[in-house]
Amino acid sequence: MAEVEVVVVAVRDIFQDEAGRKSLFSEEYKSLSALIILDKQDMAGLAVKDGDKLLAKNDAGSIVVAARASKDDAKEAHPGLAFMCSSPWYNQLVSDDSCQGSVKATLAPTAEAITAISEIQARMKS
Amino acid sequence: MAICTGCSLLCEDIVASFENGSLKHAKNLCRKGHGHFQAAFTERTRPMIDGEQVTIDKAVERAAEILKSAKSPLLYGWSNCTEEAQSEGIALAEKLGATAEATIACTTSFCEGILMERVLSGKIETCTLDDVRNYADTSIFWGSDPSSSHPRHLSRFSYYPRGEKRQRSYEEERTCIAVDVRRSPTAQLCSNYYFRLPPGGDLPFMEAILAVLDGKIPKVADKKKMIELATVLKKTEWGAIFPGPGLIYSLQDKMELFEQLLARLNEITPFKVVPMVADCNARGFNELLFEKTGHASSVSFNGGSAAYGPEHSVLAAAKKCDAVLAIGSDPLSELPIGTARALAHQPIIAIDPRRSLTTDAAKVVIPSALIGLEAGGTAVRMDGVKIKFEPVMNSELLTDEQILARIMEAV
Ligand code: SF4
Question: Does B250 sit within 8 Å of A21, measured CB to CB?
Fold first, then answer.
């Protein structure tokens, strides 16, 4: 199974922010938070297309997120650099001693379901 | 007129009407603010102990008992509370700290607090956003993306408005520069002056600016673009820099180079800094705590004195605390998984108007009135301007300040 190492940078998005304000427990918030924006080269390396699921993991934890290709053109290609909105999903990959602004993670295609907020809540209590 | 507490711009020109428990009409709200107002009617909390609904008196009483018996309570959040509630919270931490080690910290303790402390101590020159609107001809969004985080920043202050000395505004007189790891919505506006950096590339970029300002050849791939940037900076009459998380995370304990760059720029022309704190009254807490202790975002009170440093940070406190008071934030959503997990294993008292990951995990939930809509008070805009506001809706709920006063009385 293909694997790609990336640096995931936490970003803001007005639509995700709005969805989170309305409800952290909504499908809309999940779909905008459990989402990783990748360079087209990394999408090709992983053999995934928009909406395919990826397991993102590192020493801090793991999550299943949906992949989406970045809209940046070849001139601004960013292989190895991925983006996720700040959210409880992104925070699953942040360790206490790492900078919260960006983390390293390994990505691999998966058939598992996107991590639910209830799963994140259960992990906190475990 | 209502105030929006959706971000630290605290827009005061909001016209809103409500009908049958929903937002009927709104004027001047951005998309984020609209979501913030709509949320007022959904997922409201109820007083709870261990998942069972109780009276507000019982919840307050239990909260006081937990805090009173704790040896190292952590009082976390505060960035979405009024100054009145924040003052009450600092006083509560001091009172608890007389017999325990009580850590109080706000959400900026992970990021903007380090820069805000330098602004409050006068090491970094700042200005108001009204100054930016009236005088700024160059605005640098460095690791910040106001179009996403503070959506009316550009229209009210930094790019579009016709200010006193900037009547020709964005068409002719204002230049915006974006420095970021991605072409963010804000960077898309600054297409000629967008500098894409790799994560952590801010220090070499600063060194390159310093080099070109001194007439040296910068050690970057696109030398021509750096020279063009130096020309814009040198021609600036009045500049403002808006550092966001991207820059602050990158600098962390290496703020000196940023200060060196500011000093060099200010030899040429005035350049002011306004940190892009996110939450509506994060700066208010920074100012109050700084005034009291000389530190802006996190301290421990113990035996009558306030201690500061890595061992008194939220991360350290989370590992050793035996009770948590969460207010004005949702730490279980916002903090790294290890810290969130550590907090979730302690008795949490969550004072929050709405359901969150923290209220779901809390031992005690105390519902409070929504700041701005149901609770009036004072908040400090991101640039230090104090704003007083009245509630626009009737509510029987206690305000954060009233809840804290009752806890204070009982501990
Ligand atoms: S910019 Fe901020 S304060 Fe102004 S309306 Fe939008 S969310 Fe509210």
Answer: no
pLDDT (mean) for B244-258: 86
Domain that holds residue B78: 45-111+280-410
Instruction: Give mean pLDDT, residues A63-76.
Output: 91
Atom of ligand 1 nearest to the CA of B150: 1
B306: left (phi over 0), alpha (psi -120 to 50) or beta: beta
Q: Residues B256, B292: one domain?
A: no
CATH number at residue B142: 3.40.228.10
List chain A residues with CB under 8 Å of B330.
24
Coil/strand/helix, residue B91 = helix
CB contacts of A13 in chain B (<8 Å) are 148
Q: What is the pTM of this model?
A: 0.95
Can you tell me the distance from the alpha carbon of B74 to that of B70, in angstroms, rounded to the nearest whole number? 9
- Which of B13, B31, B36 most suits a substitution to test ligand 1, by most atoms within 8 Å of the C-beta? B36
Residues B192 and B298 in one domain: no
Residue B405: exposure state from Cβ atoms within 10 A (0-12, 13-18, ≥19)? middle
Average pLDDT of B262-273?
Answer: 96
Domain boundary, last residue among B209, B238, B273: B273
Q: Which atom of ligand 1 is nearest to the CA of B5?
A: 3
**CATH no., domain A4-125:** 2.40.40.20
Q: Does position A37 have pLDDT exceeding 70, yes or no?
A: yes
pLDDT tens digit sequence for B285-344? 999 999 999 999 999 999 888 888 878 888 889 999 999 999 999 999 999 999 999 999
